[in-house]
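Hi P.,

Sorry for the delay on this. The queue was packed all week, but I finally got your sequence through. Input first:
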Amino acid sequence: MWLDEADGFAEIFRGYLPFYLLVAVPIFLIMSPVSPVAASHEFSVYRMQQYDLHTAPHGCRSASFNLEGRSLTSWSTSRHCVVARIQDITIDQFMEIRSKAGALLLVLPKNDTILTPEEKDHIQLLEMAMIQLEVNAPVYFAQWSPDFENILRDLQHSFITDDKSGTALEAMVNTVSSNGYQIVVTAPTPQKVDSKPVTLHGKLAGRSGSQTIVIAAHYDSSGVVPELSQGSDSNASGAVAVIELARIFSRLYSTAAERGGPTLLFVLTSTGHSLNYFSIKKWLEEQLDSSDASMLQDVAFVMCLDSISTGPMTMHVSKPPKAGGAAHSIKSRLRIPINHKKINLADETLAWHHERFSIRRMTAFTLSSLQTHKTGARSSVLDTYSESPNHLVSNIRMVARALASHIYNVTEEVNDEDEALYDKALSVEEDSIKHWHKYMSSQSRAPQIITTNPPSIGVTGALERVLARYMEVTVSIHTLDKREPEYALYSPTRAILYVYSVKPAVFDLILTLAIVAYLTVVYFAMQMFPKFYDEFAKLVNGKTKEY
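Then the structure:
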């Protein structure tokens, strides 16, 4: 009975269907991923800074790549894209990757990650080293996400290098069984952008009009990643201080009885230290070299505000203020330390904002919480908004008080009644300061963004409108020399990155050999099955099955 049923089962193998099932199904099972959704990912990534300064190239020069992803310890050739956390890579490793690897992808720390001071210093030093060099390989930055964390973990454990593998067999087995990632970025070839830097200025006319006090700040930000360059301290804080000082003194200058003697000139520029303060240079040329240079005819001093939200301030000068002079008066009223640094015109960039004015023989200084212009905090992705800008509020209050006491020649000895009136007249609006500081810190203000947009929109337009509440504002748009531009900016600044989960190339070879071996076995099994069945039937009933 059961032998007759076996005869029916044997007839199945005489058709073509079993061949399809036995051949196709196993191949599909082997080649298809466990989870098709997890086989590919899509991320927004941000290209490393690219610009030329005095024809010297800086930053990343490429944009597209299609390479196999590897970790810091497993990459070896230009066919690999190195993927790593920014806090894990050293300057020496970056230098090696710059010269040998095909691309670099750095993942920024998670937003709520608390970095140690050592880790912050390490990241800032790495950023400074990266931005000073020309890098031919594409370099991108990505914000942290759980998917990226999984990719990093897979890359770190997927490949065992020769020095870590116990035997050659172990290394081969690990390579075959590991999952790899193909990383692809398709972006247009980098092109120069049309940059038109802007300077905003407005003045509050003084009673005498004989002298002018200039209060200036740049409002752009700089960093190794233009799209993520928020510059909360450098220099959103300085721009916010100019706005608040304009509000305070516009109220004091609103009536003839309370108006001070000197004219106050408020200046905001769109290019800072990374582009050698180009905006203020062009603005000074326009003002001083024009037929009507009355606005800067007699400048008492220029006070620049740069990065004032992280601690107590220091006065940076190119020449020590003379005793009895206006700058010395401000210094003595602020009661802050002074840092004297001569201007070095041989350097690629000037150290501080005030040096542009000092070159024009004006008395100028910069107030900053930074002790030196060489600190990496001025151009870091870590310079993000803090919910408690207490130092910014107190520093603005201190500057307003010192400036007012100098303008109105108020002595340090003030009675209680006058002190109360003094504080009321110079009261700062903390809510307004926090609002503007948060607004400016919530977006990138890299020159590639703010100098390529029309001045009436974005941050530039917002600053113009807020200053216009207190005074008449003039917008100066500067142009670069087309023959010998002082700088050049490039796009794109962002792209879409695709990550595909793949097997290594050796896996394809072994899979092919396995499939060939499987098909060979299936073929001979099909050919030999009738003979096997005849022998089995003869053994069971003692006679041969006739077909």
